[in-house]
């Protein structure tokens, strides 16, 4: 799951940069399940946690620099078939992170059940 969040957030910052530098770019979906089957998903979780630390630091710098007009910039999401603002995308990624954090917390709260 940690590797999935790292994959997702790597894609997210690229999507933000595309929307900030192009007029309504079409973002490329990716096959999350297939990415999870690749050998790097077997790497120690610490690698993805380190990646997320650096990625979130860079993303925070970028986000803090954005104006209201920047957050209103759009990209086209082919899976949803519509244009989405960066404000919407930020909310989506924020929810996504909290969603998976809740999974981790649930597993930690019940780790004795898995022994």
The CATH topology label is Four Helix Bundle (Hemerythrin (Met), subunit A)
Helix/sheet category: mainly alpha
Choose one word for the global shape: globular
CATH class: Mainly Alpha
Q: How many individual β-strands? A: 2
CATH A-level architecture: Up-down Bundle
Present the secondary structure layout.
Blueprint: H1 2-21, H2 32-36, H3 45-65, H4 68-71, E1 74-77, E2 82-85, H5 86-109
Antiparallel strand pairs: 1-2
Helix pairs in contact: 1-3, 1-5
Structure notes:
There is one protein chain. By secondary structure, this protein is mainly α. It has a single domain, classed as Four Helix Bundle (Hemerythrin (Met), subunit A) (Up-down Bundle). 64% of the residues lie in helices and 7% in strands. The protein is built from 5 helices and 2 strands, in the order H-H-H-H-E-E-H. It has a two-stranded antiparallel sheet with strand order 1-2. Helix 1 (2-21) runs parallel beside helix 3 and helix 1 (2-21) runs antiparallel to helix 5. The protein is globular, with a radius of gyration of 16 Å. The mean pLDDT is 89.
